[in-house]
Amino acid sequence: ASTTQLYDPRRRDWSARLIDALGFPSHLFPKVVPSGTVLGTLEESLRFETGLKEVEVIASCSHDTAAAVAAVPAEDEDWAYLSSGTWSLLGVERSSPLLTDACRDLNVTNEIGFGGSVRLLKNIVGLWIIQECRRAWAAGGQRWDYAQLTALAEAARPFVALINPADPRFLSPGGMPEKIQAFCRETDQPAPETPGAIVRCVLESMALLYHRTLRQIEQVTGRTIRRLHIVGGGSQNGLLNQFTADALEIPVVAGPVEATALGNILVQAIACRLIGGLDEARRLVRDSCEVAVLMPRAKERMSWARSVARFERLFSSTALGC
Description:
Strand order of the largest sheet: 7-8-6-5-9-10-11
Order of helices and strands: EEHEHEHEEHEEHHHHEHEHHEH
Number of strands: 11
Radius of gyration: 21 Å
Shape: globular
Oligomer: single chain
Number of helices: 12
Distance between the termini: 28 Å
Structural class: alpha+beta
């Protein structure tokens, strides 16, 4: 419900005012129940159709990111999460919504997580740009897998050119390498020519976008983030994770990859009273899953600091989709 913009995060229920204003029939909006609610057993007609018996139905987290955050192997409170995949969702976990002009202006949203928690997050572009580059190269006969592209990027020269991944041109499919090159020329930067140079440009720019977004979240919350947990498919990209640690100057914990599936299972286990609660669930993840811890590299600090200033200039023009 909380991802529809028809939800009142203060009242923890549908917003009748918004629903009425839009003219939607109220009967379309069922009762909102917390994640981890046992709803009952499968209806008889569905049992007959599926061949299943008296299976319990549990309301798990209603959004894949909410499930992934439930499985973040975090401790304490000074951490943020990055659900990394085709798109990136970067945020923090709170006990209450934060509804301010600054949040609205920065496009930061309040979505509900397990246990009534609030996922204060920003939805930003992720590995979509790399996926589209790979698709374009494959169409031209160059079939690179992700490991090969990452190796090429690691060998390429650093910080030759940067893009603003939030520019609208990068949100649509097709011709992604050419779009990246055109952006660089328009901003008076050398256009990367090889797959390795293009992927390096994108990965460095993504890490800098994570830096920018996390600083915005620190600004609106007044919190200092000391650790970033990266979950989802993107947590397998070790080069991007290292760039992120370098750009943020904090440790990055990468994994688990299948956090959404784990969170879904754990919420059901809590509902069935097989485990005691979210703290125990996260401890189980810490004890059961391998994660990689990447520390910021001191020798790279000045290079990333200079690149932060370069990157910010790419957001100074509204023509570049800021």
